[in-house]
């Protein structure tokens, strides 16, 4: 009888401990996102390598075309200036009264006409430009600095950046960019979304390190 | 004065001669053309008798007072549906507020009085119908007076007219609407007295367009807007390489689209295509997108822009067919290289891309047909539809629809668009079919302003003036192998060399020759035709000569122009005066450029203020002076020049070219061929008309040639570079 | 095919069309309202401009399935809008049009501009109107008409 109760108590204690851990884990997850289990201690080298992966997506056309330094968005894989002289329209980046982005770009892709769409289609603010005024992508170091500068990035820390890359609807659009007017599918970023998120996670776990240099 | 008082018998023989020809073009199309070109000698044929135009075909006065005036031309923006009625209404003493303009259907009586076919083009509407419409108005007035005089038992000279009312000397009055039926029974006078210019109440005044409001409230219908009971809509899959034929096609998926009615092959002017007929445009487009076609390209040459460039430049180094041979052909060779300018210019294929996509609606009922087209060439298009349907032309009722622009695109000798529609209507007997060319069809469909190369060698005399000039032009002929081929002279297409061969500059030892390569790309007149490239070449070279002679561009031109270049001199003088203030006060980052050119008998001079912004030319201001004889509607002329200059900027746009690679057109829509938008146009344009009572000449095309050389002349001042290859990809 | 209940110029209209059909063609062919024009089909020219919940919208690229119950205003009804009326009158008074085919779209764009910015600068005008193509190139008079309309607002 005594061995049974010891077994019972041990099991109970283990069970409680397990439950407590579970409670701690799920509650912290509830604060920070569903399943962003972050390890600290991913090393800087791995972190920088992961950043280069993230960077490769950010400067691909589906992303960088709306992160311009100029008065206009770009379009196409060759990133030419968007036709019909559409312009930024102030810091909101939603276009000008007769040429608002949402005047053509609806909440979802319009595959029958070849116009991409997503919620609240607009240009990234100039604080989040990833190109220079000659339409050339900024360096990996410069983009990393921009993306991690909390005075420019809506005060997002590493975890918020991870969540953004995983869940933001306009980010997700990059992997569901719809058809061009000629019916062909737009090209996707160089990584899958899952790969992009994993790279972001590794980078964040390493403390969002940025390469040195300009 | 003199021109206005001429009797109609004299007018057409005034220092011009006629060529009368009838010709069977490819496909057996028979066209009789009376063509008026000063260069052609009459060939022992009598001049055609002056035509008599029955007023009742042109004027209809309704009981409610409305006056319907029939316009014998297509209205496609140039304002003819206001200016021709103005001429008639003024002589008629009509109440202008009651005038309504209608576009004439195809009929003998609506043929151009000089050109002999029903057409609009060559900026000739007012020039050729000026006398005609005035006489129609005067004759109608005379008949109304005759009716009133009979009624009141007075003589016609005891009556006067004003604002659609006849007044008798005894205080009687009658409205035109009351007298109309009686007037219609009066004999048509053989001749009438026309007003002196001082008597005009409308002509010479700025008059707003009659079609203004309907074009602002969505109510005016264009050809594309036509809706008929039971109508179907058709698209055609055209060959990707000009002239290709359908080898086979798979329509299974296309037929599966709801709303698609039929899919079948049709012959085209060259090659064949596949027609998709549907209830509406969208299912027709879906159907076409789902077609699988195997094309037969055998026997076709595949035009390629980069290869053509090389070929043309090589050709330009050899003499072509001679167009002008004046003085010593070897003079240029005796001039030291340091006193020579040798320049090569390149111009690309240009599409017209009028705002309203091409379309034609045809219904075939077996023994007759009905057609609706915004056509610049009604006589030819009617005959072409008749031929396709196996009918006599008079069995084809041909309505002229209002058109959204044209610039020459709706005037093709082979009537390819109406023919396609007729081919489809033939299969869909009894059903009206609206054929639509999508914008992609239009951009890729050919009939472009040809690609052209000029090579010019200029020997400069000690006085800084040209002492020898050897000029070779290479470009496809527009006229060869068309019903207009008889206008070729000594193997030269006049539309390729115009603006150079007839230059108003004094150039001794002047030799101009041309090559006309045959290329598998259909080509066509593009608003101002040969002047689009010739003016650019001449006016940029003249500017270069002026700079070398350290003479200001106005003075140099004045010195070099023939004394008898009256219109150009008048325009240049007026321009200099009207632009002197702003030219002297330009900001440091702006430069002036000027150009002058005469085309279609109208002299134009233009000055622009240009800066470079975001690596593109920004035209802050343009002043333009024009001598077009009597200005029938100065408001319309101002409009044509303000807008025509901006239209001419098409030639300078960075993405302003059609290019072909291995037979395929590389551009598809306005994202890849980009015409001028508002930021590309001059911000402000002031227009000055040289006062004149000479017979009126046109203003539709004359604005276009001057803007590109004027802007480029300014750019050269800003950058020191020469710009000889259009479009202006980089500044 | 699907059925849609559209709010066009304040009226409810029922159409039965393929969901991918652009609003432009529903207006033109199902509702027989041809004032809105087809110029390019890829939203590059603006001839197809209507207002959707007050926003200038290029109807040639918006499938009817994405409209929902938003309010559509077309050129046929713009005169009932006080700004629309002023713009239309300015267009006529300044004799802006030539062929006229682009002008429905120009006017709809100009009205959107003036409703948002009753006193636009030259730059405002050029930025908002810079995407409306006019092949006749009546841009000088379009600017003048907008300025004239602005003075009356």
Task: Please explain how this structure is put together.
The complex is a heterotrimer of chains A (214), B (731) and C (153). In chain A, the strands form 2 sheets. In chain A, strands 1-2 form a two-stranded antiparallel sheet. Chain A is built from 7 helices and 4 strands. In chain A, a hairpin with a 4-residue loop joins β1 and β2. Chain A has 2 domains: 32 residues; 165 residues, no CATH class. Helix content of chain A is 41%, strand content 4%. Chain B has 3 domains: 198 residues, Aldehyde Oxidoreductase, domain 4, CATH 3.30.365; 155 residues, Aldehyde oxidase/xanthine dehydrogenase, molybdopterin binding domain (Aldehyde Oxidoreductase, domain 4, 2-Layer Sandwich), CATH 3.30.365.10; 307 residues, 2-Layer Sandwich (Aldehyde Oxidoreductase, domain 4), CATH 3.30.365. The N terminus of chain B is likely disordered. Helices cover 26% and strands 24% of the residues of chain B. Chain B is built from 17 helices and 28 strands. Chain B is α+β, with helices and mostly antiparallel strands. Chain B is globular. By secondary structure, chain C is of the alpha+beta class. In chain C, strands 2-1-5-3-4 form a 5-stranded mixed sheet, sandwiched between helices. Chain C has 2 domains: 74 residues, Ubiquitin-like (UB roll) (Roll), CATH 3.10.20; 75 residues, DNA polymerase, domain 1 (Orthogonal Bundle). In chain C, α3 crosses α4. Classes of the chains: A mainly alpha (214), B alpha+beta (731), C alpha+beta (153). Chains B and C meet through α7 and α16 of B and α1, α2, α3, α4 and α5 of C.
């Amino acid at each position: 009888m005594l061995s049974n109760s010891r077994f019972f108590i041990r099991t109970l204690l283990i069970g409680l401990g397990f439950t407590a851990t579970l409670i701690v884990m799920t509650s912290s997850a509830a604060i920070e996102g569903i399943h962003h289990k972050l390890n600290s201690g991913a090393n800087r080298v791995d972190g920088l390598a992961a950043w280069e992966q993230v960077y490769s997506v950010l400067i691909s056309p589906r992303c960088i075309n709306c992160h311009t330094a100029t008065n206009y968005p770009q379009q196409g894989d060759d990133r030419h200036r968007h036709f019909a002289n559409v312009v930024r329209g102030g810091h909101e980046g939603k276009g000008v009264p007769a040429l608002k982005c949402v005047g053509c770009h609806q909440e979802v892709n319009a595959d029958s006409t070849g116009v991409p769409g997503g919620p609240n289609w607009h240009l990234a603010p100039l604080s989040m430009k990833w190109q220079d005024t000659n339409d050339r992508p900024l360096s990996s170091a410069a983009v990393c600095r921009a993306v991690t500068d909390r005075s420019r990035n809506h005060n997002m820390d590493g975890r918020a950046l991870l969540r953004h890359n995983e869940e933001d609807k306009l980010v997700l659009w990059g992997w569901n960019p719809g058809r061009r007017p000629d019916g062909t599918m737009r090209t996707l970023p160089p990584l899958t979304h899952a790969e992009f998120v994993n790279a972001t996670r590794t980078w964040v776990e390493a403390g969002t390190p940025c390469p040195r240099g300009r | 004065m003199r021109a206005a008082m001429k009797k109609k018998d004299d007018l057409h023989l005034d220092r011009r001669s006629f060529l009368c020809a009838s010709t069977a073009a490819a496909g057996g199309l028979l066209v009789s053309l009376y063509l008026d070109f000063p260069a052609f000698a009459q060939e022992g044929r009598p001049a055609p008798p002056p035509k008599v135009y029955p007023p009742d075909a042109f004027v209809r006065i309704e009981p409610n007072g409305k006056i319907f005036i029939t316009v014998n031309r297509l209205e496609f923006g140039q304002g003819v549906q206001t200016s021709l009625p103005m001429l008639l209404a003024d002589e008629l003493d009509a109440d202008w507020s009651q005038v309504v303009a209608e576009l004439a259907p195809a009929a003998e009586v609506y043929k151009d009085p000089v050109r002999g076919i029903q057409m609009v083009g060559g900026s000739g509407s007012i020039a050729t119908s000026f006398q005609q419409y005035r006489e129609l108005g005067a004759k109608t007035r005379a008949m109304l007076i005759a009716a009133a005089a009979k009624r009141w038992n007075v003589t016609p000279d005891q009556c006067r007219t004003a604002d659609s009312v006849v007044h008798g000397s005894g205080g009687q009055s009658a409205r035109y609407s009351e007298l109309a039926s009686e007037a219609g029974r009066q004999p048509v006078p053989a001749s009438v007295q026309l007003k002196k210019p001082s008597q005009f109440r409308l002509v010479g005044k700025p008059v707003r367009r009659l079609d203004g409001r309907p074009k602002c409230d969505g109510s005016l219908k264009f050809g594309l807007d036509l809706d008929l009971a039971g109508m179907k809509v058709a698209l055609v899959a055209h060959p990707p390489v000009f002239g290709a034929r359908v080898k086979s096609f798979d329509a299974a998926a296309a037929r599966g689209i709801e709303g698609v009615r039929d899919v079948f092959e049709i012959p085209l002017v060259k090659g064949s295509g596949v027609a998709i007929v549907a209830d509406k445009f969208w299912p027709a487009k879906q159907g076409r997108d789902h077609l699988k076609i195997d094309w037969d390209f055998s026997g076709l040459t595949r035009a390629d822009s980069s290869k053509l460039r090389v070929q043309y430049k090589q050709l330009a180094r050899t003499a072509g067919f001679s167009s002008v041979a004046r003085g010593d052909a070897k003079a240029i060779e005796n001039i030291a290289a340091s006193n020579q300018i040798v320049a090569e210019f390149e111009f690309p294929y240009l599409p017209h891309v009028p705002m309203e996509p091409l379309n034609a609606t045809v219904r075939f009922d077996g023994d007759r047909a009905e057609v609706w087209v915004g056509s610049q060439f009604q006589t030819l298009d009617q005959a072409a539809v008749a031929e396709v349907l196996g009918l006599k032309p008079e069995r084809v009722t041909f309505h002229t629809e209002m058109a959204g622009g044209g610039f020459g695109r709706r005037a093709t000798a082979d009537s390819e668009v109406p023919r396609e529609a007729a081919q489809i209507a033939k299969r869909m007997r009894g059903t009206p079919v609206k054929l639509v060319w999508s914008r992609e069809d239009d951009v890729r469909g050919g009939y472009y302003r040809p690609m052209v190369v000029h090579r010019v060698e200029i020997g400069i005399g000690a006085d800084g003036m040209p002492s020898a000039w050897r000029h070779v032009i290479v470009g496809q002929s527009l006229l060869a192998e068309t019903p207009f081929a008889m206008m070729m002279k000594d193997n030269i297409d006049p539309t390729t060399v115009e603006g150079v061969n007839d230059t108003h500059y004094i150039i001794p030892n002047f030799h101009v020759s041309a090559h006309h390569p045959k290329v598998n790309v259909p080509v066509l007149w593009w608003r101002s035709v040969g002047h689009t490239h010739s003016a650019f070449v001449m006016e940029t070279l003249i500017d270069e000569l002026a700079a070398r002679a350290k003479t200001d561009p106005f003075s140099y031109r004045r010195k070099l122009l023939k004394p008898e270049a009256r219109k150009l001199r008048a325009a240049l003088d007026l321009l200099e005066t009207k632009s002197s203030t702003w030219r002297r006060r330009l900001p440091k980052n702006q430069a002036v450029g000027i150009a002058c050119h005469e085309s279609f008998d109208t002299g134009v001079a233009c000055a622009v203020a240009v800066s470079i912004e975001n690596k593109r030319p920004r035209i802050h201001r343009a002043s333009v002076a024009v001598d077009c004889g009597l200005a029938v509607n100065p408001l319309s002329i101002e409009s044509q020049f303000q807008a025509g200059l901006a239209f001419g900027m098409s030639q300078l746009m960075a993405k302003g070219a059609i290019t072909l690679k291995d037979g395929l057109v590389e551009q598809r829509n306005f994202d890849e061929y980009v015409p001028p938008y508002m930021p590309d146009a001059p911000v402000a344009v002031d227009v000055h008309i040289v006062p004149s009572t000479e017979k009126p000449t046109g203003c539709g095309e004359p604005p276009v040639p001057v803007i590109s050389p004027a802007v480029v002349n300014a750019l050269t001042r800003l950058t020191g570079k020469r710009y000889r290859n259009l479009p202006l990809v980089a500044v | 095919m699907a059925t849609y209940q559209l709010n066009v110029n304040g009226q409810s209209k029922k159409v039965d069309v393929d969901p991918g059909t652009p609003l432009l063609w529903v207006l033109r062919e199902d509702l027989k309202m041809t004032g809105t024009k087809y110029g390019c089909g890829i939203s590059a020219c603006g001839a197809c401009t209507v207002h959707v919940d007050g926003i200038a919208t290029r109807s040639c690229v918006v499938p009817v399935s994405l409209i929902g119950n938003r309010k559509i205003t077309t050129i046929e009804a713009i005169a009932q809008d006080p700004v629309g009326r002023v713009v239309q009158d300015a267009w006529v008074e300044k004799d802006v049009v030539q062929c006229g085919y682009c002008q429905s779209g120009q006017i709809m764009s100009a009205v959107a501009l003036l409703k948002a910015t009753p006193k636009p600068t030259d730059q405002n005008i050029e930025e908002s109107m810079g995407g409306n193509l006019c092949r006749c190139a009546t841009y000088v008079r379009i600017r003048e008409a907008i300025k004239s309309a602005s003075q009356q607002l």
